[in-house]
Amino acid sequence: ELPCSIRSFSEAAGVSVGKVLGTMMQMGIGGVNINSQLDLEAAETLAAEMELSIELKAAETLENSLINELEEREDSAESLIARAPVVTFLGHVDHGKTSLLDYLIGINVVKGEAGGITQHIRAYEIDKDGRKVTFVDTPGHEAFTEMRARGANVTDIAVLVVAADDGVMPQTAEAISHAKAAEVPIVVALNKIDLEGVDENRILTQLTEHGLTPSEWGGEVEVVRTSATKGIGMDELLETLLTVAELNEYSANPDREALGVCLESAQEGDRGVSAKLIVQNGTLRVGDVIVCGNSYGRVRAMTDTLNNKPIAEAGPSTPVNVMGFDEAPGAGDRFHVLDDITKAREIAETRTHASSQESLSGSTTKISFDTFQER
Ligand code: GTP
Ligand code: MG
């Protein structure tokens, strides 16, 4: 049971103590004062009487106690090891994000894309002489703002891809604001440098106007000239990224329950749900109990995102395809590993309930659970 005082009930509900006590009086409950304790049932009855909804309470409790603890748990300095930087390609449509990534990983995705437009959010880990980098490719088409934002949210370093023949375009500007909002370092790939008659100064000026002053102009932003089709500047781009990564000393604790973000997910017929996740901390293993947004399950199988080979575990910064969710988690939802499938189910169910409640009744007063627990 979760006792709460009349005081915290009134504060959480945003109604005066007098009104709460008055209602209780009408209900025939006397002899109570501001410090009297209500149990869950009494709080619910009272809320119903006052036409307040405290439906969300139980859900938020479990989330507060479990999920918040996992999110806020600090890793001791000794438990931390270096992890690969997560590098996201952002930029306007057709400026060459997928081509650059293809070149770096040595595969050719661009050829297989419908109309050459990326409609998914891809993530691959590559290994450069023992130094790993996780790359995330996002679509540049204007319809995919949400996917670019998602890419920016999981990223440590943003590569802003700007085609030299086109310059800063609307989705370039949008990508700049996503990267700035995420407070991550930005490296510019001035791509298609192989094309005739490009005016580099024009683009450096545009970048400066958007608050990205190139280092060659005394600013802080590295601008690397690249050609994804000719393979120009690719080593320099990778080295620049690895240098930024080294300066930032990204680290994580591999010896804890995994947590991270779902990039996208799909129902794959008989095979069930496949979700593409990025592990941000801890290690995800086959058999783990996992909850992500409204869905939950036990990790049945995991595969590498590059060649789809089965893998048994995925450490920090690793992108991975995960099978075993009961339904497709939402793109952008955070995932957590729990020790108990029942808890995972309860959390997923209460979240589902909460989101349907929210959509059903816009005017429901939610009583924050924090308030209940803290006082
Ligand atoms: P979206 O995913 O749709 O946002 O596009 P994108 O940024 O991933 O661009 P993509 O890699 O699909 O490249 C678009 C077109 O530009 C393709 O035809 C590429 O072959 C071409 N391209 C990419 N990089 C270069 C380059 O460095 N030089 C030249 N000349 N063409 C390039
Ligand atoms: Mg693309």
- Beta percentage is 25-35%
User: How many individual β-strands?
Assistant: 19
Rg on CA atoms, Å: 25 Å
Q: Which ligands occur here?
A: guanosine-5'-triphosphate, magnesium ion
Helix and strand run = EHHEHHEEHEEHEHEHEHEEEEEEEEEEHH
Overall shape: it is elongated
Number of helices: 11
Helix fraction by DSSP (H/I, runs of at least 4):
25-40%
Q: Average pLDDT value? A: 87
How far is it from the N-terminal to the C-terminal residue, by CA? 15 Å
Helix and strand content put the structural class at alpha+beta
Poorly predicted residue ranges: 360-375
Strand order of the largest sheet: 5-6-4-7-8-9
Largest sheet: 6 strands, mixed
What is the element layout, followed by pairings?
Blueprint: E1 4-5, H1 6-13, H2 17-26, E2 37-38, H3 40-49, H4 57-72, E3 81-82, E4 86-91, H5 97-105, E5 122-128, E6 131-137, H6 145-154, E7 157-163, H7 170-181, E8 186-191, H8 200-209, E9 223-225, H9 234-248, E10 251-252, E11 259-267, E12 273-281, E13 284-285, E14 289-292, E15 295-304, E16 310-311, E17 313-314, E18 319-325, E19 334-338, H10 341-360, H11 369-374
Parallel strand pairs: 4-6, 4-7, 7-8, 8-9
Antiparallel strand pairs: 1-2, 3-10, 5-6, 11-12, 11-19, 12-18, 13-17, 14-15, 14-19, 15-16, 15-18
Family: Belongs to the TRAFAC class translation factor GTPase superfamily. Classic translation factor GTPase family. IF-2 subfamily.
Region (G-domain): 85-233
Binding site for GTP: 91-98, 137-141, 191-194
